[in-house]
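I am still learning, so can you show me any protein sequence you like together with the matching structure tokens, please?
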Amino acid sequence: MLVIDGFEFQSKNSAKTIEIWRCANRDCGVILHTNIHDEFLRYSGKGTEHCHLPSTVRVEVRNVKQLMQERARNDLAPLQQIVEQEVRKALLTAEALALLASLPVVYALLSDRFASTYVYLINVLFTEAAPLNKKFEPSLIMSDFEPALAKAIMLEVQSPGLSSTYLDNVMICSTVRQMMALALVPEQFVPSLFPHIGEDLDDPDRDELSDLFKYFDGYWMRQIPIWNVSSLCQRTNNTCE
């Protein structure tokens, strides 16, 4: 990336002595040449005026991220401390702070994609937040399509503490799996089957799942066509992956 007068450019191709850059905004046709030291030489063609405003906020954020990465490679301080210190020193605008909020703060290298592994990861996040005087309670979780992760989130975030019960209690595990299996049942039968899920549970187990049933009934049962795949030939996207 190259920034000139607040506008971002991406490298298009290079020769031994000249590098060609195009505006990072794909709707803009400005192209320029620099030498191998990224010093401006000339514009290419007649288009020298951008069709958009400078990306000053994005430049702010990119510069701060670069400083964070450089410090993280050489500094033994905790990553959270590095992030907080660099943000304070940068004196970012409100717009830049809002954009910086998307910066990843945790990377997890997992051994597999089982729900139990995701549950373990979420438990770690809950636990590690406390010493930092933080509380892990995300209002929005976005992911690619990972059924095991979705199950773990539903168990852990929507119903905190339920994951251990799910793993240890056969009856609760069976009941939750029945709820998940509704996606494979012909759509017209789902409303009549859902109320009967959990009938074999005793009162303590039913109480344990009461919040989950309320959540499922109030949210997912209102949009059955979105998640029911009974009429599809391909019921998962495994072939795509």
About this structure: Strands lie at 2-4, 7-14, 18-23, 31-35, 40-44. Residues 33 and 39 are 9 Å apart (CA to CA). The first helix runs from residue 56 to 74.
